[in-house]
Structures
1.
Amino acid sequence: MRKHLLLTCGLVFLAALAPLHAQTLRVAMTTSDIPTTGGIPDNGSEGGRFAGYPIFDALVNWDFTKTDEIADLTPGLATEWHIDPNDHKRWIFTLREGVKYHDGTTFKADDVIWNFDRHLNEQAPQFDRAQARSYRTYTSQVVKYEKIDDTHVALYTAKPFSMLPYLLSRVFMVSPTQYAKISNWQEFQKAPAGTGPFKVERVAPRTSIELVRNDDYWDKTRIPKLKRLVLLPIADANTRIAALRSGEVDWVEYPAPDSIPGLKSAGFQIVTKPYPHVWAWHANNSDNSPIKDRNVRLALNFGLDRKSLVEFLGGDLHQLTDAGNVQGCEWVLRQQFLLQVERQDEEQAAQAQEHPGHGGQAGSQLREPQHREVDERVPASGDDPPFPERKGGDQAQAGEDEKRDH
């Protein structure tokens, strides 16, 4: 059996390569535990793409049919949506008819209201107190919702908000009938019922999620070619590679960069794609912080060694544009920033830092490369690639720089 390796994936790659496999595909995820399977998946984006989109649908889905284009929104359980021309805070959704949940019941307008009550109505018996608040990123803009008729619902936002359909792509619909049989969200995760292309067959906490093909899926173009999909949480990159080499799994995410040459020489297939993942670093902008000064922020921006960062994160995979962005990553290139950084410019960094009130000699803090490492220790939560361990030559020679800055 040919083995496949996935570096940065969406389900689009799984679907594209599945015909080369047997009827069961075993995937090693980067998570330390299985994502929750009750329709509010945890573990970040990885939870959504493995325990969200395969099992459930939202009113608005993502179009994963084209591997050579950036995915955009596509109709899901709603066939159409638009802003009410008389009220720009009111969105009207036309619902898809004839859709069946995995338990055999029919999706309807009342279910949309029921599911939003799960997220937002603390007085509702199905309000999910354990998980709903963690999903407020996607639901907090919705302040009111109502059934118009059997095929239309309306969602209201606090103010005009054009991004609502994008957020709704993570608000998955589950079967109220299936929940009524269980009446407990924790237990519901063992036997959930969504409308997605895969059904949950077995959930083994901390071990695996086993999915089977939904032959009755409403979108016939997305009925899986696989019969079974087995998802295994393997947080450590070296352990994932060992599982791949031993035949325990068929597909892994995010191998350690230094393992790639060996995998290629052993005949494994490497699949890569630019991925718009963001690690957010929040600066201290309090009154006594130098970061509050615009010139200091400019200095930090111009002084950032983007080329070295890309090399550190696996720079053999992508090339930088003159603006310091990854080529082909239109998620970044689309944005129009007030400050367009054309290149790393140490002179501009020093000039920006030459400003009174920020340490002894003007510009002394940023004129020389610091060769400092930042040690970021975070639990595995999906989409966490393994960082290679590298030290610069100057750092190895300077005892002071051997210290890690936290």
2.
Amino acid sequence: MCYLVRKIERNKWSCFSEQYLQNNIISSHPITNDLKVDRNNGLSLWEVDISNPTSIDNIALAIASTRSNLKNLDLLILNKSSLDEKGLVMKPTPGNSVFVRLNESHVDLTVIDISDIEKISREMFEIVDDKEYCIRYTENKLIRLFIDKIQAGEISLDNLEESISKKIKKKMTRNMT
């Protein structure tokens, strides 16, 4: 079974999830923050094998590597079949992370109208409070994962944003002493 990952800010969804679950009311606050589409009307997602925790960690690093700074990262894991059943269409599009081999795992959900945003948001509200499907990566955990990948030769520190590489270098230096 295929799953898809979307970066969110969990606190923006969690504070409204009870309102949604009890009253079927969708708040616009998390949607306007986390479901912004690109110029091509696409919503960025990453395919992931949830049976392999390393796969999820790798996608977390792929997403973190596209950011300008390193901070906590919340990932929501969506069931692709459920989105397919709702008539939502995905198309493969290359990612832009420093993990070149993972960039082929990137897809765009082609969002046509507000009803598609509603379908996605309902799916997200249903699972955002489930720790199995909403995973938080702290800054320290991301740094440790980056260090592992750098030491394994899978990524280069030079390819990361300067603010991110500084934090990683600092941690690596501290570990050496």
3.
Amino acid sequence: MDPFIALKNKNTRTLHINPFVKESTKAISNLGQMMSYVTLHLSSQFWTHMFFILIVHDYTRIIQWDCGSAVITVPIPFNEEHYLFDFFIHYNYTKSDMQGSDSSVQAPETEELNTATHLINEFCNSSSDREEANNFLVISILSSGEHVNDNYVIEAPFATISLPTGHVTRTFITYNIHRDKCIFLKDSWRIDISGMPKKGETYIKLQDKDIPYIAHCLNLGDIGDNTYYRT
């Protein structure tokens, strides 16, 4: 998903002043509409962050969204200043992880896909077009203490509305390539700040105390190095 653009009519003056959102019903409605766009894309694809271009009359704002917050520029009169044009030029030539692409997700190899669709009942029972490779993905998670990636074949997610924006917890029935077995995977987007616990570590603590009815945690890990995002 590359940057997407939302146009508002010339009677909408939200952009012409700071702060970003006025205390009016129309302004709040516009904000909710933008959040729904972002949420749909972040929930249906694997992106660490994304860019949104909001244009109102002859002004624009560039917004970077991730799971923790939105970074918003001041109003840019794009017919007078070059910043919007510069943004598109730099975005076109920058690395995919800086654009927001999740480097831990890739397309499966043919052999991986064939094994997964024959072994996992939920994959076998999918409709025939689901067996096409573009409907499946491989997620790589760094194995705890082993410094190697553990790979999981999953069905591609579908769009859902989940607020607050970006705070999506998704679960998958997966084929774990290393263990050659069906594994339940929980994908949780955590804000990376001091004191924010990791869910996997919480599961391990509960297991160590023999708390009943807790799923056994085989592995946990974060993606990337947080150079371009905070979640």
